[in-house]
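MAPEG family protein
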Amino acid sequence: MTFAQKFQLSIGECLLKCEYSPHLLLQPPQPQSYDRDMSCDSNMYPNYSIFGIVAFWVLSVAPYFYAQFILARSRNWHYENDPVGTPEKEAELNSKRGVPAHIWASYQKHTALAADSLVDFPLFASAVIIGTVAAMEPDTLNLYVLIYLALRVIFWVIYIRGSSLICTYIKAGLWLAANTELLFWIYKSGMILKHRQVINI
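Predicted structure tokens:
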């Protein structure tokens, strides 16, 4: 038997022993089972904050579409999207078309609410994105989004239903609280990112 044959035979015997004795091999580290530990690790909560951007946008444009719906219904489903000039001229034209005054007032209020909400949309979306980039805790991000959306929904209800002076003060307080939360949110994200290189060029 040549040396090469002896060498091949010894290699074969070694592999055979390792096959029946796995402890002789150096086992690589096994990947962690996240399905088992997800409920125990606070860092493994799913991050739903990005979906809050979609939710806020939908809630913001919904009053506009509702306003168009009630106006078209009062006109016997005759819809016109061309501006006719000032709101006063448009109100006069709608009066001639038989649109009730309360329908026109509701239309104006809902369109104003949609415009007001879309003004705050960029700040909210920026806060969510910056918080995600800063790797804030997912449960914290989710809580911030829920609090903000809750404040906005209450604001919208009072905006549509309320007409007294106290409702005006409540609306202002809700708006201030919601946007203060966003600024605080961005501040916390900035403190996290202050000493971190986010983009490596």
